[in-house]
Specification:
This protein is an alpha/beta fold and 203 residues long. It contains four helices and eight strands, in the order E-H-E-E-E-E-H-E-H-E-H-E. A six-stranded parallel beta sheet has the order 5-2-1-6-7-8, sandwiched between helices. It binds pyrazine-2-carboxylic acid and zinc ion.
Length: 203
């Protein structure tokens, strides 16, 4: 059984959002086109408390882009984004949310970030996504969303580690690209780790 995982298709990661991903909105129609082909669609949702430790605003004297440590792991500091209940945390208004079977919220613990849809960045706490997929006898996941170089990569790598067959829909992903090329490098890394890269036409 195959499931579709949509990563963080939220307003704050769109070009008009607080943590903008260039052309991030272009992946929404791709998600909409693919959802009807899957009997299980899961969407992850970055869901931070207002004082989350990944926000530069939570660490006086720092700026977005600075690197620190959080939950015992390296942490890039971000602008405030995807604050629980705020419009920036909502899914893009054009996303066909009626086709989403389950939403997995992540990043709620202020003391550790959660890029992956499966585990917090310290790998100590599960979001429940693994159990949900097991319950539906899923052995293959198809993944797209935002952002390639952070939450997509982390979700893909955890899915591979958990034993799922993983396909990344490359035209359904866009990168933050703090350093130009980060997104391409992330795709190459995912492929090297065992992910299959394809385009939405081939799903
Ligand atoms: C993400 C940075 C911070 C993502 C989430 O969805 O890739 N990136 N929080
Ligand atoms: Zn976040």
């Amino acid at each position: 059984m195959r499931a579709l995982i949509l990563v963080d298709l939220q307003n704050d990661f769109m070009p008009f959002g607080a943590l903008p991903v260039a052309a991030g909105d272009e992946v929404v129609p791709i998600a909409n086109a693919l959802m009807p082909r899957f009997s299980l669609v899961v969407a992850t949702q970055d869901w931070h408390p207002a004082d989350h430790g990944s926000f530069a605003s939570s660490h006086p004297g720092t700026s977005p882009g600075d690197v620190t440590e959080l939950g015992g792991v390296e942490q890039v500091l971000w602008p405030d984004h995807c604050v629980q209940g705020m419009p920036g945390a909502s899914f893009h208004s054009a996303l066909d949310v009626a086709r989403i079977d389950r939403v997995i919220r992540k990043g709620s613990d202020p003391e550790v970030d959660s890029y992956s849809g499966f585990f917090d960045n310290d790998h100590r706490t599960s979001t429940g996504l693994d159990a949900l997929l097991a319950q539906h006898a899923v052995d293959e996941v198809v993944i797209l969303g935002l952002a390639t170089d952070y939450c997509v990569q982390a979700t893909v790598i955890d899915a591979i580690g958990l034993g799922f067959g993983v396909t990344v829909v490359t035209d359904g992903c866009r990168a933050v690209d703090i350093t130009p090329g980060d997104g391409d490098q992330a795709l190459a890394f995912m492929r090297a780790e065992g992910a299959r890269l394809t385009t939405s036409n081939d799903i």
